[in-house]
Structure formats: structure tokens, C-alpha cells
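ok so i was messing around last nite and threw this chain in just to see what happens. nothing serious, just curious
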Amino acid sequence: MSVDTSENIIQEQTGEPEAIISTERFLTFTSDGLTIGVSTNYVTEILTNHAITMLPLVPDYVRGIINLRGQIIPIIDIRRRMGKMPIDFTSTTCLIVLNINSISIGIIVDAVQQVMDIDRSRISAVPVENQQELINGMISSGERSVILFLDCEQLIQTY
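result:
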């Protein structure tokens, strides 16, 4: 006598094995009209009001550093890092603190949107002719919307 598992029951009902869906949670944010997602595995926290100390002789996309509970964290303006014009901070501007391979870094974004569960198998590669070094994938979201995915590994290598 065999024991029916949920997988066996689904196979019997549909005639096909259950597809394995590998979802991952992503925090989405906007920057210069683009919707960008970052895996929540990297997100430490979101700050809405923190003083940034400016540093001399750094690339223009490095806005400075913050002291977060005794830890010094470099802050990158994601707009400038992607070659866009900076804007003044607004009530929706946030700092997203990321921990990438034990390196903490903050990114300035226009606004945080939401956390989404996304099936990783639906993420497409960025076409070579449109490739942006900090973007490693994209997915259609709605009728006329696309979510781009931030390549966190590349972000810390180029900073």
C-alpha cells in the first residue's frame, strides 16, 4: 500500500507533475521613473530621515556616509550611479540599507513601493544592447510596466 502525497494527488488529477515554483521576495522602489526590485535577502532596513556626512574626493554618486548605531555606512545615490540627474530630497526619498556579502551600503531612492513575491523563473535577462551594468534582470508587471532587478553584487564591486 502506498502513501499518497500532495504531489501524487496533483499528478493523478492533472496527469502532470507539480511545477516547482521558486519565489523570492523583492522590495521594489522607484528611481527616475524606473521601478527597480532588490531581493529582501539584502535589505537590512529602510530609513526616511538620516543626516548624510559629505566626503571630499569621492565619485559624484557617493553622497557620503551615515553613522547607523555606530556603524559607518557609505551612501550611494542610485540615480547618479545610473548616469541620471540627481534631484532634491522629497518626503518620499528613502535610504535603503543593504548588506551584501557582509558589506553594508546604503542607496538613495526616490520612493519605496512594496514587497512582492516573484517567481524567479519569470525573470528575463536584460537584452545585450540595452544592458545596464547594475541591472541583471527584468519582468513584466502589468500591462505597461516593467520591474528591473538591481545587481547587488555588481553594486558593491563598482562602488
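not much to say yet. Residues 6-14 form the longest helix (9 residues).
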